[in-house]
Fold this sequence. Notes:
CATH architecture of one domain in chain B: Beta Barrel
Number of strands of chain B: 12
Strand content of chain A: under 5%
Mean pLDDT of chain A: 90
Strand content of chain B: 25-35%
CATH superfamily of one domain in chain B: Rod shape-determining protein MreC, domain 2
Number of strands of chain A: 0
Oligomer: heterodimer
Amino acid sequence: MKLSELILLTVIFLIFSFIDNKVNLFLINFSIVSNITYLFLCYLCFRNPQKINSLFGAYIGFLIDLNQNVFFGLHAALFTLTILIINYNYFRLRMFSDFQITLAFSFFTAFFIGFKSVILITMNFQYLVVFLSFFSAFVSYLFIPLLGKFLLRKTEL
Amino acid sequence: MARLPDKSSRLLLISTFIICSLFLFADFRFGIFKPVQNFYNSSSLFIQVFSREYVVNPIFNSFSSILINKRSNDENQRLKEELNNLLIENYVISNREILNSNVFFDEFDIKNTLSKLLPAKVVDFDVNQYLCCDKHRMFLLTESTRELDSFKVVINNEGIVGQTIKINKSLVEVILLSDKSHRLPIQNQSGFFCEANGAGVPKKIFCDVDLTLDEKEFFLKQKFFSSGLGGIFPKGVEIGSIYEILELSQKEIRLTIELKADPLSSNFFGIIK
């Protein structure tokens, strides 16, 4: 990956993280959590697994941990785990239709939310949040590929 | 074992995940990365505060001050115009008796008087020519030149400054009293009449007096008024006072009169219709 691409992706992820934070302020009343950052990582990893490796996932994860002031390594571990899973099931996922891909990534997102909730809000963990996050991720992922293609149209990613 | 995409290293994937998990465990259990997070938070806060205080706020303030300045300038200009109009109106009202006695105002009526007063603004006044040379003209812009004709009196808040000579659409050319080719019938309080010529010098007109027929007494600061004989200027309006008495010969003197109204004192004038 070129340095310019790395900087571009860093900026995109930080912006998505910022948007997630702001959107969640409004969605939390409906027990929904926005996950554009995570879904974008899934999309990116599935699009180009050679370049989006686990080191990149760890880098972005640590950066978001610092930015969101959560446990250091939380996002990094989950991002690397996601990249690991996508890499291990890459050829299987390639055979999926778009709908199935969306379902799979929504499932990943639900797991991501669940794990984060267990670590961050242990006392107030709600299954409803995990359940609804699945649907919100499903809806969000309908737009993520378009957004990704638009943002990365001038890169080799 | 599952096949990986090309160039992907199984070892790298698993080792990165394990290291990240260890980081998470270390921070969750022992909080050993708290100093790192604190440093990051304090740095980002410092950058935010610094950029807000020294970059964003100064730029925003400068832009807003430009806007405020522009607004206050416009407001100031508007108020200035209103003030000048009021000063002209005030001049008319305070001299109503004199103005009533001329051919323009039969009877003083504030509404009627003000309706006969057309506010005008300077659009072109060659001050260099005014100060150096003997042609003293200026161009005024009025809202409407309907019912406006040549030879109308032009005043400012200090008094009469001249008369209109040409009207072109909304532009009015004004000849000042001090113009070399301007003539103004004046009189003093002792009943002396003369036709004052523009001196071609700012705020100066002069009268040549022949003392052959009668002895007259003149002194400096003696006031002169319009006599109303020309049919243009109202009678009894103070024009100025004697500035200099020059002896041309034994029986002829030249009275130089300094005008009361300075055309440079304001950009706003009134034309009496």
